[in-house]
UniProtKB/TrEMBL annotation, chains A, B:
Belongs to the class-I pyridoxal-phosphate-dependent aminotransferase family. It comes from Pedobacter steynii. Its cofactor is pyridoxal 5'-phosphate. Keywords: Aminotransferase, Pyridoxal phosphate, Transferase. This is Aminotransferase.
């Protein structure tokens, strides 16, 4: 990729910012503070349903801002963990004592890995890095490398055999997986649960499950109700992606009663904030739930359209995904970090390189689906960015 | 106290609610959900500066609501822990690597006690219960019982001797203390730090320090800048009380760099929410800081006035306090739980019984100072409630 001198300074700053953020992308507030010269038009790094955000804001305006209830949300202590769990219990049809409320799913990941993983954890890679980063000293990590030849999807039989061989006390499945969006069908997850009954903790992270489906009615498929039957199952659910409210920090875990009790016994008392409590109360209401589900399906359909259009673009390979993002491999010798910088500087589109993801071989980016209008702009920008690169390379070759 | 049959049902429900909340008071949202028949006019259970809440809301309206930036706060991931620490560092004149951002001070208490307390902790009682509740299995708790005869204030020499005798690895000082508001002067805390250099962790919880002072200019006195010199010092700071934003969940800890690093190494990445990040950015701004300090002093002066008026009331003993609340002992045979119920049912004032506080001998309530107008209403209500009780008792006696 070609950069002007001015652009190169931005590329350098971008690199520093990324390094400071470790194995995650710098957030948009950090970004604005440290790179004010770049205007982000579209944050396609950010994996959320924008229509759900709008729906939440509609309710929030009407019920919280216009009524003046915002003062209470800011000023007063939120309810305790178990009180919020009770609110969700009826809606989810789950025993409230099996629900643990988290300050974002990440807090639950941390709590579970710190408290219940004892000796050995098996993690598929590529994956969401916190699962291996949060492992405590002395815990062995066994990686199950997903195969590029199989588009980084899970080979269920091979997986079961590997777990039986290594005997970890904790295994982690993200379904659909991040960063590639590969989905494990319910029948396969159930087979894993049946075969691996001896594993102490089977963590299934369903943070992107609202975007997956098994039939054309796009019905939601979740394991949340299987905890009763499989007490080694721990379902972790972020609300940030499906509901587009990452700033609120809301998530929950479904796990056996003893685990919830153990966590609450000496901690996690007021770990929700006022807005998160309002969100959870809303989430459990049927009027909101019905309107949300329409937007969930709308977003799935548009994401499918977006992925179809991405597949038409040259010089990239789009991996199969059942999430609201796609893993894209850059072919034709393009460097991911340079492509990300170019797209940001020229088009104001912020996407994620996957350079920091262990288990990926090649130049990869991860791209989120946004609103239809934003997706159209992303497609146009990617197209001209990819073609421009090809033209410049041609000119270069002739100059030589 | 006398109750009608209808009131007795409320008294019973109140008792259940309190039991469910454990050693804390049920929050106001829980309260409204479970006891809708009672209208809380004044939450005097809630220890915060209401003028600071108003100031925050003024900024929040102008900068977040009117500009439409609220969407970003709700939708986007907040910045990482270390980024927010950097924002505070300059304002506090502290090395950013010594700052750990918490989802409320309670998260920091949990993190410190879980990670750095190894064998033995010494805790003054009465105190904020989480300090002993969060202790992990296998850790010994030594209680230092504060003396009623000395109004539950700390006897510094006796304390130092006791720590030297028991050799705990962690000691906790809440300054001013909760639930009584007793203050330890800077010179005494410094003496403790000097004498107890061998203690691994000296936790000083300054959650109420903004309401204390050592001279008539009401200047803020804090240990935050002593961590460099005393690496065993851990200063914990809630923002909920002084800034009146408990619903936002914001707090920070100042501790040696290795501790912050150890916590961030495998956790606490996105533990602030969007509103908390906005709050922290505001907190570090001089325009906000200057306006806030005027309100801090205004509130201190009004609280002093409130305490003076409370001292005029019959049948109670008001303990000395340098916080924004007072511990009150009910004399004349009044039961704390009944008094709290009566005040709630008849006057809509919600206060805290201290029945669950270990280390208190007698019938105690804790009463927060609110706005001057609310304080006036509280004084009037307390007065008639106490006098009415006396009159009814007299009638009773005559009837017998």
């Amino acid at each position: 990729m070609k950069f002007t001198d001015e652009e190169l300074i931005v590329v350098k700053k971008l690199e520093i910012l990324k390094n400071e953020a470790g194995s995650h992308s710098p957030g948009i507030f950090t970004f604005r503070q440290k790179l004010p010269e770049v205007e982000i038009k579209i944050d396609a790094c950010f994996l959320s349903n924008p229509y759900a955000t709008e729906l939440f804001i509609e309710y929030f305006n009407k019920e919280i801002l216009e009524t003046g209830k915002i003062r209470d949300l800011l000023e007063c202590y939120p309810s305790q963990n178990s009180v919020i769990a009770e609110i969700l219990a009826e809606f989810l049809a789950i025993n409230p004592k099996q629900i643990f409320i988290g300050n974002g799913a990440i807090e639950i990941i941390q709590a579970v890995i710190h408290n219940f993983t004892e000796k050995k954890i098996m993690i598929n890679i590529p994956t969401f890095s916190s699962y291996y980063e949060y492992v405590k000293e002395g815990v062995e990590v066994v990686y199950n490398e997903l195969s590029k030849a199989e588009d980084y999807s899970l080979d269920v039989e091979h997986y079961i055999a590997k777990v039986k061989f290594h005997r970890p006390d904790t295994i982690v499945l993200i379904n659909p997986n991040n960063p590639n969006g590969a989905y494990i069908r319910l029948v396969d997850v159930q087979r894993i649960l049946d075969e691996l009954w001896f594993v102490k903790n089977i963590i299934v992270d369903e943070s992107f499950i609202h975007f997956a489906y098994e039939n054309k009615s796009y019905q939601l498929v979740s394991l949340a109700n299987l905890v009763e039957e499989h007490p080694n199952l721990i379902v972790i659910k972020s609300m940030s992606k499906d509901f587009g409210v990452a700033g609120i920090r809301a998530g929950y875990g479904i796990m056996k009663q003893e685990y919830v009790q153990q966590l609450l016994n000496n901690g996690y008392l007021w770990n929700s904030n006022g807005l998160a409590e309002y969100f959870f109360r809303l989430y459990a209401r049927s009027d909101f739930a019905m309107r949300y589900d329409i937007l969930r399906v709308k977003y799935i359909v548009e994401t499918l359209e977006f992925i179809k259009e991405l597949r038409q673009l040259p010089y990239i390979k789009v991996y199969p995904s059942m999430a609201n993002f796609v893993l894209i491999e850059l072919t034709n010798g393009i460097m991911a970090s340079e492509f990300v910088a170019k797209l940001l500087i020229t088009y104001g589109i912020y996407i994620r390189t996957c350079d920091d993801k262990i288990g990926l071989q090649g130049q990869f980016i991860r791209l989120a689906s946004r609103s239809r209008k934003e997706n159209n702009y992303i497609i146009e920008s990617l197209k001209s960015c990819l073609e421009m690169n090809f033209v410049l390379d041609l000119i270069d070759e002739r100059a030589v």
